[in-house]
Specification:
With 297 residues, the chain is of the alpha/beta class. The chain has 2 domains: 129 residues, Elongation Factor Tu (Ef-tu), domain 3 (Beta Barrel), CATH 2.40.30; 149 residues, Rossmann fold (3-Layer(aba) Sandwich), CATH 3.40.50. The strands form 2 sheets. It has a 6-stranded antiparallel beta barrel with strand order 1-2-5-4-3-6. A 5-stranded parallel sheet has the order 9-8-7-10-11, with helices on both faces. A hairpin with a 2-residue loop joins strand 1 and strand 2. Helix 4 packs parallel to helix 5. The longest helix is centred in the last third of the chain and has 20 residues. It is globular. The two termini are 31 Å apart. The C terminus is likely disordered.
Length: 297
Protein backbone atom coordinates (compact mmCIF):
# COMPACT_ATOMS: atom_id res chain seq x y z
CA UNK A 1 0.00 0.00 0.00
CA UNK A 2 1.35 3.44 -0.95
CA UNK A 3 0.63 5.97 1.80
CA UNK A 4 -1.04 9.25 0.91
CA UNK A 5 1.49 12.07 0.72
CA UNK A 6 -1.08 14.77 1.55
CA UNK A 7 -3.62 14.55 4.38
CA UNK A 8 -5.11 16.40 7.32
CA UNK A 9 -3.71 15.41 10.72
CA UNK A 10 -5.30 15.94 14.11
CA UNK A 11 -3.69 16.52 17.51
CA UNK A 12 -4.15 13.67 20.00
CA UNK A 13 -1.62 14.68 22.67
CA UNK A 14 0.52 17.68 23.72
CA UNK A 15 3.49 17.36 26.08
CA UNK A 16 5.90 20.12 27.16
CA UNK A 17 9.06 18.00 27.42
CA UNK A 18 11.39 20.93 28.22
CA UNK A 19 10.73 24.65 28.77
CA UNK A 20 11.37 25.33 25.06
CA UNK A 21 10.30 22.06 23.40
CA UNK A 22 6.79 20.69 22.98
CA UNK A 23 6.03 17.21 21.62
CA UNK A 24 2.76 17.01 19.70
CA UNK A 25 1.22 13.73 18.61
CA UNK A 26 -0.97 13.54 15.51
CA UNK A 27 -3.26 10.99 13.94
CA UNK A 28 -4.55 10.96 10.37
CA UNK A 29 -5.08 8.98 7.21
CA UNK A 30 -2.05 7.16 5.85
CA UNK A 31 0.12 7.32 8.97
CA UNK A 32 -0.23 3.57 9.51
CA UNK A 33 1.37 2.90 6.12
CA UNK A 34 4.51 5.03 6.40
CA UNK A 35 7.69 3.09 5.67
CA UNK A 36 10.27 3.49 8.45
CA UNK A 37 13.60 5.15 7.70
CA UNK A 38 15.83 7.39 9.80
CA UNK A 39 15.51 11.18 9.67
CA UNK A 40 12.00 11.30 8.20
CA UNK A 41 11.10 14.83 7.13
CA UNK A 42 7.72 16.27 6.23
CA UNK A 43 6.07 19.60 5.52
CA UNK A 44 3.43 20.84 7.94
CA UNK A 45 0.78 23.32 6.83
CA UNK A 46 -0.59 25.74 9.43
CA UNK A 47 -4.03 27.39 9.03
CA UNK A 48 -4.44 31.11 8.57
CA UNK A 49 -6.38 33.11 11.19
CA UNK A 50 -10.05 32.28 11.08
CA UNK A 51 -9.48 28.82 9.54
CA UNK A 52 -10.24 25.67 11.54
CA UNK A 53 -8.08 23.65 9.14
CA UNK A 54 -5.54 24.67 6.49
CA UNK A 55 -6.82 25.04 2.96
CA UNK A 56 -5.18 22.59 0.53
CA UNK A 57 -5.13 22.29 -3.27
CA UNK A 58 -7.87 20.31 -4.91
CA UNK A 59 -7.30 16.55 -5.08
CA UNK A 60 -5.45 15.16 -8.06
CA UNK A 61 -2.05 16.83 -7.82
CA UNK A 62 -0.58 15.11 -4.77
CA UNK A 63 1.07 12.34 -6.80
CA UNK A 64 3.52 14.85 -8.32
CA UNK A 65 5.43 17.08 -5.92
CA UNK A 66 5.94 19.91 -8.42
CA UNK A 67 2.33 19.92 -9.61
CA UNK A 68 1.08 19.89 -6.03
CA UNK A 69 3.35 22.76 -5.00
CA UNK A 70 2.29 24.83 -8.00
CA UNK A 71 -1.36 24.24 -7.05
CA UNK A 72 -0.48 25.16 -3.45
CA UNK A 73 1.05 28.47 -4.58
CA UNK A 74 -2.08 29.17 -6.65
CA UNK A 75 -4.15 29.44 -3.44
CA UNK A 76 -4.71 33.15 -2.66
CA UNK A 77 -2.01 34.33 -0.27
CA UNK A 78 -4.40 35.34 2.50
CA UNK A 79 -5.87 31.81 2.45
CA UNK A 80 -2.71 29.82 1.72
CA UNK A 81 -1.37 27.92 4.74
CA UNK A 82 2.05 28.67 6.16
CA UNK A 83 4.32 25.73 5.39
CA UNK A 84 7.26 24.64 7.55
CA UNK A 85 9.60 21.62 7.54
CA UNK A 86 9.78 19.23 10.49
CA UNK A 87 11.17 15.82 11.46
CA UNK A 88 9.10 12.86 12.60
CA UNK A 89 10.33 12.16 16.14
CA UNK A 90 8.52 8.83 16.43
CA UNK A 91 5.99 6.74 14.52
CA UNK A 92 3.41 4.33 15.91
CA UNK A 93 1.76 2.57 12.93
CA UNK A 94 -0.52 0.49 15.16
CA UNK A 95 -2.07 3.65 16.61
CA UNK A 96 -1.78 5.48 13.28
CA UNK A 97 0.19 8.28 14.95
CA UNK A 98 3.34 10.33 14.58
CA UNK A 99 5.00 12.63 17.11
CA UNK A 100 6.69 15.90 16.11
CA UNK A 101 8.82 18.06 18.42
CA UNK A 102 8.47 21.85 18.10
CA UNK A 103 11.09 24.28 19.35
CA UNK A 104 9.45 27.31 20.96
CA UNK A 105 11.98 29.90 19.83
CA UNK A 106 12.42 32.57 22.48
CA UNK A 107 11.16 35.94 21.23
CA UNK A 108 9.96 34.46 17.92
CA UNK A 109 6.50 35.21 16.60
CA UNK A 110 6.33 32.91 13.58
CA UNK A 111 3.16 30.95 12.73
CA UNK A 112 4.59 27.57 13.74
CA UNK A 113 5.82 28.79 17.14
CA UNK A 114 2.52 30.57 17.80
CA UNK A 115 0.54 27.47 16.88
CA UNK A 116 2.67 25.03 18.88
CA UNK A 117 2.66 27.23 21.99
CA UNK A 118 -1.14 27.00 22.23
CA UNK A 119 -1.83 23.65 20.50
CA UNK A 120 -4.60 21.52 21.97
CA UNK A 121 -6.09 18.10 21.37
CA UNK A 122 -8.39 18.25 18.35
CA UNK A 123 -6.47 20.97 16.49
CA UNK A 124 -5.91 20.27 12.80
CA UNK A 125 -2.90 20.74 10.52
CA UNK A 126 -2.06 19.26 7.14
CA UNK A 127 1.03 17.36 6.08
CA UNK A 128 2.92 16.77 2.86
CA UNK A 129 5.07 13.68 3.28
CA UNK A 130 7.12 12.01 4.52
CA UNK A 131 8.02 11.00 0.97
CA UNK A 132 10.14 7.86 0.66
CA UNK A 133 11.53 9.24 -2.60
CA UNK A 134 13.63 11.62 -0.50
CA UNK A 135 14.88 9.06 2.00
CA UNK A 136 18.66 9.36 2.12
CA UNK A 137 20.78 6.24 2.31
CA UNK A 138 22.67 7.06 5.49
CA UNK A 139 25.47 4.60 6.34
CA UNK A 140 24.29 4.03 9.91
CA UNK A 141 25.00 0.30 9.67
CA UNK A 142 28.33 0.49 7.84
CA UNK A 143 30.24 3.54 9.06
CA UNK A 144 32.79 2.78 11.77
CA UNK A 145 32.30 6.11 13.57
CA UNK A 146 29.54 8.70 13.40
CA UNK A 147 29.38 12.39 14.26
CA UNK A 148 25.89 13.83 14.80
CA UNK A 149 25.95 17.60 15.23
CA UNK A 150 23.14 20.15 15.40
CA UNK A 151 21.16 22.66 17.43
CA UNK A 152 17.73 22.47 19.09
CA UNK A 153 15.97 22.11 15.73
CA UNK A 154 18.11 19.05 14.91
CA UNK A 155 17.53 17.40 18.29
CA UNK A 156 14.41 15.42 17.19
CA UNK A 157 16.31 13.97 14.23
CA UNK A 158 19.41 13.23 16.31
CA UNK A 159 17.24 11.46 18.89
CA UNK A 160 15.63 9.27 16.24
CA UNK A 161 18.98 8.57 14.55
CA UNK A 162 20.54 7.42 17.83
CA UNK A 163 17.62 5.06 18.37
CA UNK A 164 18.29 3.56 14.92
CA UNK A 165 21.99 2.85 15.47
CA UNK A 166 22.95 -0.83 15.59
CA UNK A 167 24.48 -2.45 18.64
CA UNK A 168 28.18 -1.71 18.87
CA UNK A 169 27.95 1.56 16.95
CA UNK A 170 30.46 4.26 17.87
CA UNK A 171 29.08 7.80 17.72
CA UNK A 172 29.46 11.27 19.17
CA UNK A 173 26.44 13.60 19.26
CA UNK A 174 27.18 17.31 19.78
CA UNK A 175 23.92 19.15 20.50
CA UNK A 176 23.63 22.87 21.14
CA UNK A 177 20.70 23.93 23.33
CA UNK A 178 19.88 27.05 25.32
CA UNK A 179 20.82 25.69 28.75
CA UNK A 180 20.79 22.59 30.93
CA UNK A 181 16.99 22.65 31.21
CA UNK A 182 16.77 21.82 27.49
CA UNK A 183 18.69 18.55 27.75
CA UNK A 184 16.61 15.44 27.01
CA UNK A 185 17.12 11.78 27.86
CA UNK A 186 18.28 9.98 24.72
CA UNK A 187 18.65 6.25 24.07
CA UNK A 188 22.41 6.09 24.60
CA UNK A 189 22.57 3.04 26.84
CA UNK A 190 24.52 1.08 24.25
CA UNK A 191 28.28 1.35 24.60
CA UNK A 192 30.11 3.64 22.24
CA UNK A 193 27.49 6.40 21.91
CA UNK A 194 28.34 9.67 23.64
CA UNK A 195 26.15 12.78 23.85
CA UNK A 196 27.84 16.13 24.47
CA UNK A 197 25.44 18.92 25.40
CA UNK A 198 26.57 22.45 24.57
CA UNK A 199 24.82 25.37 26.32
CA UNK A 200 24.48 28.65 24.42
CA UNK A 201 24.14 30.67 27.60
CA UNK A 202 27.65 29.61 28.68
CA UNK A 203 29.36 30.52 25.39
CA UNK A 204 30.12 33.86 23.72
CA UNK A 205 28.77 34.60 20.25
CA UNK A 206 25.40 33.91 18.72
CA UNK A 207 23.58 30.67 17.93
CA UNK A 208 25.89 28.04 16.47
CA UNK A 209 29.15 29.47 17.78
CA UNK A 210 29.37 27.05 20.70
CA UNK A 211 28.53 24.11 18.43
CA UNK A 212 31.31 25.09 16.01
CA UNK A 213 33.83 25.15 18.85
CA UNK A 214 32.65 21.78 20.14
CA UNK A 215 33.03 20.07 16.76
CA UNK A 216 36.42 21.70 16.17
CA UNK A 217 37.57 20.38 19.55
CA UNK A 218 36.10 16.90 19.03
CA UNK A 219 38.46 13.94 18.78
CA UNK A 220 37.50 12.43 15.42
CA UNK A 221 39.16 9.04 14.76
CA UNK A 222 41.68 8.93 11.93
CA UNK A 223 42.77 5.79 10.12
CA UNK A 224 40.32 3.58 12.02
CA UNK A 225 37.75 2.96 9.31
CA UNK A 226 35.03 5.02 7.70
CA UNK A 227 33.85 8.21 9.42
CA UNK A 228 30.47 9.78 8.61
CA UNK A 229 29.05 13.11 9.79
CA UNK A 230 25.37 14.12 9.96
CA UNK A 231 24.96 17.89 10.35
CA UNK A 232 21.80 19.98 10.71
CA UNK A 233 20.55 23.23 12.19
CA UNK A 234 21.04 26.89 11.26
CA UNK A 235 22.12 26.97 7.62
CA UNK A 236 25.21 29.16 8.03
CA UNK A 237 26.47 27.10 10.97
CA UNK A 238 25.94 23.85 9.08
CA UNK A 239 27.94 25.15 6.12
CA UNK A 240 30.83 26.16 8.40
CA UNK A 241 30.77 22.77 10.12
CA UNK A 242 30.96 20.98 6.80
CA UNK A 243 33.78 23.21 5.54
CA UNK A 244 35.72 22.43 8.70
CA UNK A 245 35.21 18.67 8.39
CA UNK A 246 36.02 18.54 4.67
CA UNK A 247 38.66 21.26 4.46
CA UNK A 248 40.45 20.79 7.78
CA UNK A 249 39.68 17.23 8.88
CA UNK A 250 40.01 15.69 5.43
CA UNK A 251 36.58 14.07 5.13
CA UNK A 252 35.31 13.37 1.64
CA UNK A 253 32.21 15.44 0.79
CA UNK A 254 30.19 12.21 0.65
CA UNK A 255 31.10 11.61 4.30
CA UNK A 256 29.18 14.69 5.47
CA UNK A 257 25.38 14.78 5.14
CA UNK A 258 24.15 18.31 5.83
CA UNK A 259 20.84 20.16 6.05
CA UNK A 260 20.09 23.80 6.88
CA UNK A 261 16.83 23.77 8.87
CA UNK A 262 16.56 27.53 9.40
CA UNK A 263 18.28 30.82 8.53
CA UNK A 264 19.13 33.79 10.72
CA UNK A 265 16.71 36.70 10.15
CA UNK A 266 14.87 34.74 7.42
CA UNK A 267 11.94 32.32 7.32
CA UNK A 268 10.92 29.62 4.88
CA UNK A 269 8.61 32.19 3.30
CA UNK A 270 11.61 34.30 2.24
CA UNK A 271 13.39 33.78 -1.06
CA UNK A 272 16.48 31.53 -0.90
CA UNK A 273 19.87 33.18 -0.84
CA UNK A 274 22.65 32.30 -3.29
CA UNK A 275 24.23 30.14 -0.58
CA UNK A 276 20.90 28.38 -0.01
CA UNK A 277 20.62 27.56 -3.72
CA UNK A 278 24.22 26.33 -3.87
CA UNK A 279 23.60 24.15 -0.82
CA UNK A 280 20.43 22.71 -2.36
CA UNK A 281 22.25 21.81 -5.58
CA UNK A 282 25.04 20.14 -3.63
CA UNK A 283 22.59 18.17 -1.52
CA UNK A 284 20.72 17.00 -4.62
CA UNK A 285 24.00 15.86 -6.16
CA UNK A 286 24.90 14.05 -2.94
CA UNK A 287 21.52 12.28 -2.78
CA UNK A 288 21.90 11.16 -6.40
CA UNK A 289 25.33 9.81 -5.62
CA UNK A 290 24.01 7.98 -2.57
CA UNK A 291 21.07 6.41 -4.41
CA UNK A 292 23.11 5.56 -7.49
CA UNK A 293 26.35 4.26 -6.04
CA UNK A 294 25.65 3.69 -2.38
CA UNK A 295 28.05 4.51 0.44
CA UNK A 296 31.63 4.27 -0.68
CA UNK A 297 30.64 3.38 -4.28
Amino acid sequence: MTPALVALIHVTDVQRITPRMVRITFTGDGLDALAPWPDQQLKLCFPRPGQSAPRLPDEGAEGDAMRWYQAFLAIPEDERPWMRSYTVRSHDPARQEIAVDFVLHEGADGPATRWAASAAVGDTLARYGPDAAYAGQLPLDTADWLLLAGDDTALPAIGSLIETLPEGARALACIEVADAAEEQPLAVGRAGVTVRWIHRKDAPGGPGEALLHAVRDADIPSGEGEVFAWLAGEAGTVRMLRRHLVGERGLDKRQAHFTGYWRRSLTQDDAPTEEDLAEAQERIAALRAESGAGWGG
